[in-house]
Amino acid sequence: MKQLEHNAFDQLPLLLAVPRAAAILGISRAAAYRLAASGELPVRRLGGRVYVVTAELRDLVAS
């Protein structure tokens, strides 16, 4: 099962837009932005935009 999860994440770009990360996690866009603001979702800000770091999201889901 873990191998399958890693393969699915390997197909994703290094950074994900928050709405796409929300869809992957099965949560609402608003919930994903709340988690990002609280620091519970691993994000990086680039050019005023917020992105979820795919590798850190994978680790979060695996734990």
For the biggest sheet, the summary is: 3 strands, antiparallel
Counted up, domains total 1
- Structural class by helix and strand composition: alpha+beta
Chain-averaged pLDDT = 88
Number of helices: 4
| Strand runs, count | 3
How does this structure look, described?
This protein has 63 residues and is of the alpha+beta class. The protein has one domain. The chain is 57% helix and 19% strand. The chain has 4 helices and 3 strands, in the order H-E-H-H-E-E-H. The chain has a 3-stranded antiparallel beta sheet with strand order 1-3-2. Helix 1 runs antiparallel to helix 4 and helix 2 (18-25) crosses helix 3 (29-38). The radius of gyration is 11 Å and the shape is globular. The mean pLDDT is 88.
